[in-house]
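[worker-b] picked up task from shared queue
[worker-b] task type: protein-ligand structure
[worker-b] ligand name resolved to pyridoxal-5'-phosphate; SMILES cross-checked against name lookup, match
[worker-b] sequence length check passed
[worker-b] input payload:
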Amino acid sequence: MAKKLDNKTREARLEELSYPEAPKLVTEIPGPKSIAMFQKMMQYETPQRPAGTVIPLAAQEAKGATFMDLDGNVFIDFVAGVGVKSTGSCHPKVVEAIQEQAGKLGHHIDSITPLKEKLVDKMRATAPHGLKDNCFLSFFQSGTGAAEACVKQCRMIQQPRNQVVVFEGAYHGVFGTTNAMTTGEGYRKGYDPLMPYVYHMPYAYCYRCPFNLEYPKCGMECAKYLDYKLNTPYTGLDNVAAVICEGLQGEGGYIVPPKEWWPMVKKACEKAGAICVCDEVQSGFGRSGKLWASEWYDFEPDMIVFGKGVGNDQPLAGVMTDMKFHDKLILQSQPNTFAGNSIALAAALANFEIVLDPEMDLMGRAQELGEYMQKRFKEAQKSIEQIGDIRGIGLWQSIELVKDPGTKEPASQEAMGEVLGRAFSKGLFLVPCGRYGNVLRFMPPLVISKKHLDKSLDIIIETLEELKDTLAGKK
Ligand SMILES: Cc1ncc(COP(=O)(O)O)c(C=O)c1O
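[worker-b] inference finished, payload out:
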């Protein structure tokens, strides 16, 4: 096996993938061309599109962990298409694979191809825990589609059970059953009635524990409560097909549950006869420092939903399902026109090669960078007490901003808007998350150079320092 490169060589290679000059601002931010296009598109594209409707961003080109807007300004990308671009934008190996495949076979009916065979083999061989070489694959184009199909599989396997248990703060998609599973109010409003038989349980959100307890003294009350609800008569959960939970919780606040969480969830599922599903659409594909975030936990998921990073520059999502369920699914019951699109498959294979490359060791590096980021934020917290919580693993990092660390009252939406706008005006693109919209989440491509990471951290900390009174509600 090839050996890991020394740090200097590795950083030099990573620097080549991005615009080296980022951030480089050549106009006022936002620039005039971006504003004009933004105003037009806000009219002629659906207002339901959440991404980039606050900050007038019109992207033109992107490279690695950086992108250029319409006005020629170059930004550092700490969003990565919302946790998508593990291998960054337009990685030369991905571009080459897409170009080569586009000239050979673009889309075909969802048939078997050598490319699909290769990807299936790769995903089976690298699947975590008991799914390794023991799962079958379904392919879709979006995380929502994959999560929805996963619910269909669970119900079909478990007939006549139909209840689906999910968690407070969850995001699994915004159509059909997944919309009922997703908890953000803005995504649910105006779509009533949502699909039935979906139930939300408390999540291991230790900073704001739903039981007002403290880890580890709590003894994982949240997981115990799940076990109680699933395995006690008269709780209303008497027909559960599946318990579906994000590997790490994303939109709900970039939360990493304690190590006991998943093993306890799995045990409760087993007792209740429910399928245990780990949704790794956002937490998967190297972001946590392991290929799948579930590898950090000692348990056996029955299914994994994947998306985002696997396709990276191409839309590819799907489900890895334990072989034991193969014969329970009804033949031909899930058509999907673009499943197994060969350009997306080619991109995914290239992404696997990049993420698993031992010379670059991007996942080991993500772990080191995550620890480094936490150190910087802990240092900053000494003077910026509005940094209420610092959490994360690998390049899945976040800080929760509060008015006052004693009361934990969330920073206001106005203050958060100022933070995001100020960071953007300095050349760093960030998006928030969390139940109160007060969490800054950091999910740069794994290929971000140390130089760009340091520059980004400098911008974030400087911006928070400048706006700490605003965050505290004193201004
Ligand atoms: C955990 C999780 N599941 C599912 C989805 C839905 O994915 P998509 O937006 O590709 O439909 C997301 C999207 O953010 C997600 O974070």
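[worker-b] attaching auto-annotations
[worker-b] The CA atoms of residues 99 and 408 lie 50 Å apart.
[worker-b] releasing lock
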